[in-house]
Amino acid sequence: MESVGSGEALKASITDVEMDLKGEGGTPLSGFFDWSVGLVSAALSNILDKSAHYEGGRGLILMGEPCSEQTVRQRAKDSETADFIQNAPIPLQSTDCKGVIQWANLAMLDMMEYTQDEYVGRHCSDFAPDDQKDLMSEMAKAVHCGKKIKEVPVCFYRKNGGIVPLLLDTNVSYSEDGRFHHTRCFFRDDTGRRVREARAEALVDEMDRSLSLLDHFMSNTLHFIRTPCNVMTQALDAARGQLDSANHANQSNSMVSVAAKAAILESKLMLDVTVGQLSDLTRTLDDVSDLQRFEQGAELRPVINDVELLPLCHSVMAECALRCHDGVECVLDIGEGKATLPTDPKQLRRVLHHLLANAAMWTRQGSVHLSVTHDVYPNGAPRCVFNVTDTGVGIAGNIDVVGKYRQPQSMGKAPKGGSELSQKYLASVQQARDRQVEAAGSLSNAKGVGLGLLLSYNITNALGGELCFSSEPGNTKFSFSLPY
Question: GO molecular function: any one (predicted)?
């Protein structure tokens, strides 16, 4: 009443005033009232209060209205909700359709280091860096159209000039008639996420650097090993040629003893074994080098020629026979059809060599079977189908031998734009390396380096096919098709 009477305000009100009144017979009654006080003209004051006389100026009028119990309870709930939101630990604010701040809770004001009067009533873009003002305008338009904003990274200036990174979520409140009322804005401090993302990117960069150093080391190592191997192979081939000549001459020379002839023959056999082992080593070096290129994202460029299928298959089956256990039969079956296939002979030989070598290693009894048939793709195009089947122990049904070799992601730079992508990239890099180790451990059984299937899978893809696999005890089959 004092503020209205002194002219500071035209009207004032107070709600939920608990008062004790006297009822009938003087019984005290307790109730809640809403009271309001306002200014009225002197003429109206004289009418309302005939015992007083006002000349000019204004009078005061006090009006009270009892509150129902339901109204009191609802107001108590509303007051509790308002207090809960105002003191919530999450920064909250509301804005109008133009992005002007209408209200902010204590957590928002504390984070921005502003008072209520300094913060409320200003546009959101007033606190945004210059490079995000357009983003603020676009978000205001989107929100006005009823769209939700979820986890959008934004930055706001604090009162002290510092920048706080935030994640923004919004939804819209509509009035009863469906019109836009205000936007609810929910903020979360984004500093922790950005720190984790920076750490993940640093870890990925370090892993890329380590892998690059490892690849460089491997390339140099393979080069230094391959060069002397090639020299030794040439020297051994020359020595084997000389032994062949000496053995041929001694066979017709009766002056040479039987023991000398046997020694020359034994030396030739030992030399053949050495040349074979050296050839295997050179082939392994080539496989490791090519596999390294595949991991780096390089593409194999086949050298296409018309390949005679029978001589090539007969040659790789002969090599397979030397690797088979005693009593294991090697079978070659080439179906009727074209005798030649336009493909890269060297790469086709490598694939068949690895598949047959794998079959020979795991087959203790029974047979290793290579079949070549002629068929068509679903679209009618002709194709040549290669099947390598063995009667070995088989592979457990829960192991996807081919699927494990599908490369998850190129070993390039780490993806940008979020910690989730960075974490996925880290996982993909680790999986790629783990697959190498797993392949070497579970499939080679210490008899190889575990690269054959992985290399075969990549080569068949480069030749236009895809390596497929099926297995059960006593019947394991790898197959692939190449186009004519």
Answer: photoreceptor activity
